[in-house]
Amino acid sequence: MPFIQEDGGRLNNFAKEPKIYQATPPTATQKRNYIFYGIGALALVSSLIFIAYSASSMG
User: Fold this and answer.
1) 26 Cβ neighbours under 8 A, 6+ residues apart
2) Beta strands in 1-59 (DSSP E)
3) Alpha-carbon gap, residue 33 to 50, rounded angstroms
4) Staple 26 to which of 9, 30, 46, 48, CB 3.0 to 4.6 Å?
5) pLDDT at residue 20 above 90?
6) Residue 55 pLDDT more than 90?
7) Residues 5, 29: Cα–Cα separation, whole Å
């Protein structure tokens, strides 16, 4: 683990830095999956809001 020695003899540890790499753009299949995930998430949140509203307006 990399460390430096500061004034007074104190050691200061640093985390090992991860290897940097170039990100690749998403493929057409990944883009399509992102759309489906977004639609699914929107449906889930909308249904939860509808259920919460329905439950709070009962009675």
Assistant:
1) 34
2) 3-5, 11-13
3) 26
4) 30
5) yes
6) yes
7) 50
**What type of residue is 45?**
V
Q: What is the pLDDT of residue 28?
A: 98
Task: Give me the half-sphere count of Cα atoms (radius 13 Å) on the Cβ side of residue 12.
Answer: 5
Q: Where are the domains of the chain?
A: 26-59
11: β partners: 5
The two three-digit tokens of residue 47, written as one number: 């249904």
Residue 1 banded pLDDT, cuts 50, 70, 90: low
Residue 13 makes CB contacts below 8 A (sequence gap 6+) with 1, 2, 3
Instruction: Give the H or E element holding residue 26.
Output: none
